[in-house]
Write a structure and sequence with these properties.
about 400 residues, alpha+beta, two-stranded antiparallel ribbon, 13 helices, about 20% strand, disordered C terminus
Length: about 400
């Protein structure tokens, strides 16, 4: 293998003046480098976006969530509470009642998601950093308070300073036929806004947090809950606690971790990342046509050298290895430079946030990016495979014509 490598290196790093074939080889190397760097950067951006979403949803969602397998609510009993608390690693239970309701403020109204939460939610402090105005509290003494999304505040013009105007909620009741009293068609309740949060547009535009007692009475969920949010001692024990809870509670409940609470979104991100990987690999494959042409022309130019090597006893296998090695040199230099360039750009962005997202109210100012070693491994394998295939046909042609050549 040393002789084919030596000859290939001589062909590529020849000190003679560069001809057209050398120029095409250099262009091929540059294109492979640029394609590799672009692929690394784009994959790192997808990793960053996934991490950003996890950090955003981590403030809203809990590590483990218990949901009913059928229907939208279940009876929250002491036995159920005991089963959950008996699992090693469970630190607390936040009771949740979530449903849609009509919210009216002054002369404006909109449909929102009202989410009733027990005091454990405040004690955990998951969304404390998301509060932009007011207090992170659901009670002021005995007076219930609501924490409103910033989008809802803007749409309805809610003011925390106006103590004389309340948020009014309306919720339809299950009315029996024959009832003529309109007030029996819906539940009505008022509450004061105590704080405004800004987390993510979907949450900001839809959610209002209220005390669990307020939601239970207003929505008529007597003793029922729509979900239980479980806080745990450490993220490393999530899988074990999830499995233990599912085994203890049985098939009547669904136990989900943080990723499974947004399973569809993360699947879409992974599919998009896969398609981006395929598209950029195809771009590199198209660029590798230059490698094919440069090797094909090199085979034509080196007919005399091939003939001489064959006369000196070189085998077809050695001739193939010479030109395959020539293609490998282009591939390794191109992909190596591309990996270094892609890593450098991604590292600079991750460390210093050079490129801004251009949105002042964004959760983070710099464009999110994260470097993962597996991206480099898969990219390297893909580039090497593509460039190897590009050099197979010219090397086979060189080996097959060697027996018909004569030294001039």
């Amino acid at each position: 293998m040393r002789l084919p490598l030596f000859i290939s290196r001589r062909y590529f790093f020849s000190k003679k003046k560069k001809n057209f074939i050398n120029i095409i080889a250099i262009i091929s190397m540059l294109v492979v480098a640029i394609g590799t760097a672009a692929l690394i950067i784009v994959l790192s951006v997808f990793n960053g976006m996934e991490d950003l979403l996890r950090s955003i949803y981590g403030q809203f969602d809990t590590a483990v969530q218990v949901m009913p397998a059928q229907g939208k609510s279940f009876q929250y009993t002491d036995d159920l509470k005991f089963k959950i608390n008996s699992i090693d690693g469970v630190m607390g239970i936040t009771e949740v009642i979530e449903d849609n309701a009509l919210l009216k403020y002054n002369n404006s109204e909109m449909v929102v998601k009202i989410k009733g939460l027990s005091e454990d939610f405040i004690e955990q402090g998951r969304m404390k950093n998301a509060i932009k105005h007011g207090e992170f509290a659901l009670q002021d003494g005995k007076r219930p308070l609501a924490i409103v999304g910033r989008g809802i505040q803007f749409n309805l013009g809610i003011s925390l300073r106006n103590e004389f105007t309340f948020m009014e909620f309306y919720y339809p009741k299950n009315v029996k036929p024959g009832s003529l009293n309109p007030s029996k068609y819906y539940s009505h309740a008022i509450i004061s806004p105590g704080g405004v949060f800004a987390l993510e547009q979907h949450y900001d535009d839809n959610y209002v947090f209220v005390p669990i007692t307020f939601a239970e009475k207003f929505l008529d969920y007597q003793g029922k809950r729509t979900a239980l949010e479980i806080s745990i001692d450490s993220p490393e024990s999530t899988a074990r606690i999830q499995e233990a809870l599912q085994a203890s509670l049985g098939s009547d409940y669904i136990v989900r971790n943080a990723d499974q609470q947004h399973e569809d979104l993360y699947k879409i991100l992974k599919i998009e990342k896969l398609f981006v990987f395929i598209v950029f690999s195809l771009i590199v494959a198209i660029a590798s046509i230059n490698i094919f042409f440069s090797l094909s022309m090199l085979v034509t130019e080196k007919k005399a050298d091939i003939s001489l090597l064959f006369a000196m006893g070189a085998t077809r296998s050695m001739i193939r290895k010479i030109f395959l090695t020539e293609g490998a040199i282009i591939a390794f230099i191109g992909s190596g430079c591309g990996l270094i360039l892609g890593f450098s750009i991604a590292w600079l962005q991750e460390s210093f946030g050079i490129i801004s997202m251009g949105v002042e109210s964004a959760v983070m100012q710099a464009y999110p990016i994260k470097i993962i070693a597996s991206d480099f491994v898969y990219t390297s394998i893909s580039i090497i495979l593509i460039t190897f295939l590009a050099g197979v046909q010219p090397s086979l042609r060189a080996a097959s014509q060697s027996q018909f050549l004569r030294i001039k």
